Amino acid sequence: MNGQKTGVIAIMLIGSLLLAGQASAQGNGQRPARERNPEDMAKNQTQRLKEQLNLSADQEKSVYDLNLSFAKRMADAREAAAASGGRPPMDSMRSWNQAREASMKKILTPEQFEKLQAEREKMRQQMGDRRPGGGGIRKK
After folding, report:
1. pTM above threshold 0.85
2. Could you state, in order of their start, the residue ranges of all structural domains in the chain?
3. Quick one: pLDDT at residue 86?
């Protein structure tokens, strides 16, 4: 169960990065998220978290550095997967996401982290409602 939850969280984070980039790119002449660089993606993700969680300047810098590291890893994994005709390995993405979550928990206050988790759960529910057949989290 925990592995499934971690996988869902990883997919949600990746999806949120991509969707956020696409939303900000629409209507303003910017390239779609998949064509944008990791720096732009990290900047956009950090800005959303800054507004959502009221980050301090120190937290904002740390969150940006963390988001940038994650975005670069994801970009490298996508490039490698595209070159081989496959997809980025889920095990690697789960591992990266777990490390990212642990780092995020150290950066944020307990209240901010709780709020972040609540926002992610809300997004997970919304995405589940959009899936064909009612969606939600699949259980084995």
Report:
1. no
2. 2-134
3. 81
